[in-house]
Amino acid sequence: MTTSTPDDKGGPLRAELEGAAFQADPHALLRQLTDSGAAHRCEPDDVPPQLLITGYDAARQVLTDPRVSKRSERAGLEPGWLMSGVRDEIGIDYMLTVDPPDHTRLRRLVTRAFTPQQIEALRPRTQEMAGRFADAVLAQETPELIDGFAARVPIAVICELLGVPLDDWDRFRWASEQIVSPVAGSDREEAYVWMSGYLAELIAAKRADPGQDLLSALADDTVEDRLTDPELVGMAFLLLIAGYETTADLIGAVLLGLAQQPYLFEVLRADPSLVPAAVEEFLRLDGPVLTATERFATEDMRVGEVPVRRGDMLLVSLAAADRDPARFEEPDSFRLGRSAGHVAFGHGVHHCLGAPLARMEATVAITVMLERVESLELAVDAADLEWVPGLLMRGVRRLPVSVVVAGNSNSRLC
């Protein structure tokens, strides 16, 4: 393998990050990068110049450094650059794309929906929906746990929280997948246009006939310091995509891990109180976000011993940080009850607002499945699993399984 080193002028790292081997197993390359330095230039002619940040300490530094901004114009660049190195011509400003104090204001307006009390209030309804989805998928001759279960739980919960009808489930999923795609193109732009237009119409409807949902509360014209219409669209946009895509991938990762580790499956089935700890370790080991969204150096600085120039795009590898042997003993091994400290949800002011909701949904979903299934195995070779492409997200597309349903001696085989 040939990669750029921390102090040379670049190399074919971008090609490796986009290659099939990386998509199948990103951790092998990320470990080599972590061992060789804190920052790695992707290509010598990237515009803007892009550096992949690896290692736990380096990641936490960049995620909290005041010299690093979410706004490319603060780094002397045109606004709207994406991780792919292209301009986002239809970009929508939301919490992930702004710095304090704008970020502080936006986050404050939605924080009340993600308090521990609010999350616990959602638990019974989440259990009800997860149980219904689990029963449906396990009744099929070919249980496929991503489309049939892992993806359905979070989209149902976030749509109910926001007050978004579930009628457009398939369209929402299509749009979400296009928007997080590593390749900018007509489908991605079409998805942006469709979702932003849909949300603008929905917000207008909420103002005319408000309900008891979060979107109605955010659209209330009488609220002091209310969101503007573009801010409302951006907020709903972020909450929908972040609330669905990452949690679906997390639930899928846990289910895949349990299918590959029968002993762990038995341990959790015997003691469901251990499920939250297992979810936490899967977040560290196979978190749904490989790389945090782009940031930009607003002045010359150093990351570890690596010089960074003003205008450099910094891509923080959360996956590399969470398997850094300098921070975690035997980082590639699953350890139930490992001490906390992962950065799967980010770090600093942009730490994921929905982390408590994602943890609750994953815990409920896995517990519901454990209650209904006596054994769980992959129905295909692990090497044949297909993964979501790109450097941003990490998730298995389909998870065909062989199960024995509790109380039923007949296996349901894919």
Any idea what the radius of gyration is? 21 Å
CATH class: Mainly Alpha
Q: CATH superfamily, please?
A: Cytochrome P450
Number of strands: 10
Q: Could you name the ranges where pLDDT drops below 50 across 5 or more consecutive residues?
A: 1-10, 409-414
Total of helices: 16
Structural class determined from secondary elements: alpha+beta
The string of secondary-structure elements, in order, is HHHEEHEHHHHHHHHHHEEEEHHEEE
Whole-number tally of structural domains: 1
The oligomeric status of these chains comes to single chain
Mean pLDDT: 87
User: Sheet with the most strands?
Assistant: 5 strands, mixed
For the record, give the distance between the C-alpha atoms at the N and C termini, rounded to a whole number. 37 Å
Provide the helix percentage. 40-55%
CATH topology: Cytochrome p450
Strand content: 5-15%
Strand arrangement, largest sheet?
1-2-7-4-3
Give me the CATH architecture, please.
Answer: Orthogonal Bundle
Shape: globular
Q: If you had to describe this structure to a student in words, what would you say it looks like?
A:
The chain has 414 residues and is α+β, with helices and mostly antiparallel strands. It has one domain (13-412): Cytochrome P450 (Cytochrome p450, Orthogonal Bundle). The protein contains 16 helices and ten strands. It has helices at residues 13-17, 20-24, 26-36, 56-64, 102-111, 116-138, 146-150, 152-162, 169-179, 186-208, 214-218, 229-260, 262-270, 275-286, 318-321, 355-372, and strands at 39-41, 50-53, 68-69, 295-297, 301-303, 306-308, 313-316, 373-378, 401-405, 411-412. Strands 1-2-7-4-3 form a five-stranded mixed sheet. Strands 8-9-10 form a three-stranded antiparallel sheet. A hairpin with a 5-residue loop joins strand 9 and strand 10. Helix 12 (229-260) packs parallel to helix 16 (355-372). The longest helix has 32 residues, at 229-260. It is globular, with a radius of gyration of 21 Å.
